[in-house]
């Protein structure tokens, strides 16, 4: 299997600085100097599609726009890109969610991927009217996914659980294809749900040893369920022609953060119920040190997590170094990489034109778009990069 790369749609706004917020940190929009208009999100989606990303993750929460609606605007403006829609079980009935996903697949030509977010923040869940405890939310997610998958298999569904009930449920149309379920969670309650229901288990960008331990845990649980999962990781990237240039960008991002902002954000994040968020916080300890002091593993920088909830680490380095680290993670069993950077449009090009060609030469990646090399001939212009230039002949 070649590696699959996804980009990120910042439906809360974009910036040349790190945009804070996320993961229950605020009840308002995280904001950004570039508003998340349909026009800008279309630019991002088209860039990701052209560069070779398979899909684009869209977040969920009170701090961003609704993922279902935001991506629905983009379906007709793109051709191949899939949309990894994040949503929270319990805020919508499982039968309705199954119907929404089927409708999306029908009208998008099968371009929906689903990121199930159980919700790690008690105060944010309550703001949506959800007063279950964290363990109860994971139990509800398991029941929710059981019902959704049963509806997608056809037939009549009856279920009476601790949190979800359905009687005589039927799907008028079945999704084609059935959208894969992406799922993340680091707590003891999350593991069994992932093993039983997920197609792709996601981790945030922790150092390789910690990732290896987490994957071994989920694999053992999946083996008990007699299931085989795929595995992915969520990271930011800062990649440039040289390592020095990349670290200079990281330094500029760090210099743009003031102590009061870091303290305020860290105070908010420390009240998180999420085990994954606590693991992110442990990587940097809230210290606004020099840029390289936040390098928690080779080329893995924890500076983003100083002001951003959720994914808080970035791969920083030359294109070759970033490709090397991706290969290291791949050797652990990770095949899917969900990436982002500031600003998202420019960083998509840095990665897509700098790192992906290296991975292609190593046989680890190929562009997902259909290609046809027939009818291509060389033209008498010498490219400056030493490669043979070709054009299509009408």
Strand residue content:
15-25%
Structural class: alpha/beta
User: For the CA atoms, what is the radius of gyration?
Assistant: 21 Å
What's the tally of helices?
Answer: 13
Give helix % range.
25-40%
What is the CATH H-level superfamily?
Answer: Luciferase-like domain
Distance from first to last alpha carbon? 33 Å
Q: How many distinct folded domains?
A: 1
Brief summary:
It is built from 13 helices and 15 strands.
Topology of this structure?
Elements: E1 4-8, H1 38-51, E2 55-58, H2 67-75, E3 82-87, H3 94-108, E4 112-116, H4 122-127, H5 134-152, E5 157-160, E6 165-169, E7 181-184, H6 190-197, E8 200-204, H7 208-224, E9 230-240, H8 243-255, H9 259-269, H10 275-284, E10 295-297, E11 300-301, E12 314-318, H11 319-332, E13 336-340, H12 344-354, H13 356-361, E14 376-378, E15 390-392
Q: Would you write up a description of this structure?
A:
This protein has 394 residues and is of the alpha/beta class. An 8-stranded parallel barrel has the order 1-2-3-4-7-8-9-13, surrounded by 7 helices. Strands 5-6 form a two-stranded antiparallel ribbon. A two-stranded antiparallel ribbon has the order 14-15. The chain has helices at 38-51, 67-75, 94-108, 122-127, 134-152, 190-197, 208-224, 243-255, 259-269, 275-284, 319-332, 344-354, 356-361; strands at residues 4-8, 55-58, 82-87, 112-116, 157-160, 165-169, 181-184, 200-204, 230-240, 295-297, 300-301, 314-318, 336-340, 376-378, 390-392. 39% of the residues lie in helices and 18% in strands. A hairpin with a 4-residue loop joins β5 (157-160) and β6 (165-169). The protein has a single domain (4-235, 321-367), classed as Luciferase-like domain (TIM Barrel, Alpha-Beta Barrel).
């Amino acid at each position: 299997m070649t590696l699959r790369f996804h980009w990120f749609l910042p439906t809360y706004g974009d910036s040349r600085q790190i945009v804070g917020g996320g993961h229950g940190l605020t009840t308002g929009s995280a904001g950004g100097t570039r508003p998340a208009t349909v026009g800008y999100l279309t630019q991002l989606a088209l860039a990701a599609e052209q560069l070779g990303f398979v899909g684009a993750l869209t977040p969920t929460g009170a701090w961003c726009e609704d993922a279902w609606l935001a991506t629905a605007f983009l379906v007709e403006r793109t051709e191949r890109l899939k949309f990894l829609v994040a949503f929270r079980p319990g805020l919508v009935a499982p039968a309705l969610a199954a119907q929404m996903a089927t409708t999306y697949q029908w009208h998008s030509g099968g371009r929906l991927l689903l990121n199930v977010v159980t919700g790690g923040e008690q105060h944010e869940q309550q703001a949506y009217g959800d007063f279950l405890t964290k363990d109860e939310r994971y139990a509800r997610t398991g029941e929710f996914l059981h019902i959704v998958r049963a509806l997608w298999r056809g037939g009549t569904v009856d279920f009476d659980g601790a949190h979800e009930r359905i009687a005589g449920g039927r799907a008028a149309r079945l999704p084609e294809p059935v959208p894969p379920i992406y799922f993340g969670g680091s707590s003891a309650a999350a593991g069994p749900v992932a093993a039983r229901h997920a197609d792709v288990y996601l981790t945030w960008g922790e150092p390789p040893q910690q990732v290896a331990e987490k994957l071994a845990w989920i694999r053992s649980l999946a083996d008990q369920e007699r299931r085989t999962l795929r595995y992915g990781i969520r990271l930011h990237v800062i990649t440039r022609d040289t390592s020095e240039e990349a670290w200079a960008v990281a330094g500029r991002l760090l210099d743009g953060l003031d102590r009061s902002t870091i303290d305020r954000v860290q105070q908010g994040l420390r009240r998180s119920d999420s085990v994954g968020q606590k693991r992110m916080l442990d990587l940097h300890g809230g210290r606004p040190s020099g840029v390289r002091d936040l390098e928690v593993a080779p080329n893995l920088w924890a500076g983003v997590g100083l002001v951003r909830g959720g994914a808080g680490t970035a791969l920083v380095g030359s294109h070759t170094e970033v490709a090397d680290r991706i290969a290291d993670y791949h050797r652990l069993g990770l095949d899917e990489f969900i990436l982002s950077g500031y600003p998202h449009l420019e960083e998509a090009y840095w990665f897509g034109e700098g790192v992906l060609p290296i991975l292609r030469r190593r046989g680890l990646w190929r562009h997902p778009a259909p290609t046809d090399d027939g009818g291509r001939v060389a033209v008498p212009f010498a490219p400056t990069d030493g490669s043979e230039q070709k054009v299509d002949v009408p």
